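Writing this down once: the sequence line spells out the residues, with the fold written below as integer tokens. I am pasting one below:
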Amino acid sequence: MSVKEIGSVLRSTSHTEYIVQILNPRKNLSIADYSLGSFVFLGKDIVAIVYDTEIFNPNALSLSEQKLEFEKFAPDLLEEIDILLKVLILGKFDINNMNQSIPTEIIEAGERVSLMTKEQIKAFHLTSNNKLQLKYLTNLKEYKLAYTIFENIYKQLQNLLDSKHLEILKLLQKNMLWERVYK
């Protein structure tokens, strides 16, 4: 399986939340490669999901003095727009044991970030007994875009899972909608 690298870890905001800088967003990738709800690997085996994005445009610097400094010392930076992804750690991928709990390891700055394949996404969501697992939903519900992210997860899993898993997924979707409406 070929791995599609999309960026690298820039920094963390906590043990479970990281900021990823997209590599050459205009050249190598499509917007779909890093959309809300995309599953990614940080390093080789830490699973995360895109839960928000930021765009940094050096041309929009508010202080004209700062902009003059950029023009003088780094004119090429003014042509760049950085896309930053906020990702939430969901667990660890091991083909023998899909662990949907927070790993104790720390991800280092510069660690590569790549997209998960459909097969890997499916495997991450099934136990060794072929039961659906979404333990990370509890953590995901803390974020303002949780329902939208879950809808994107649902769309991805809908094409990967069998009917008994989809029934459970549909119940979770209804529960998420109910919580969204009545909170």
Notes: DSSP finds five helices and six strands in the chain.
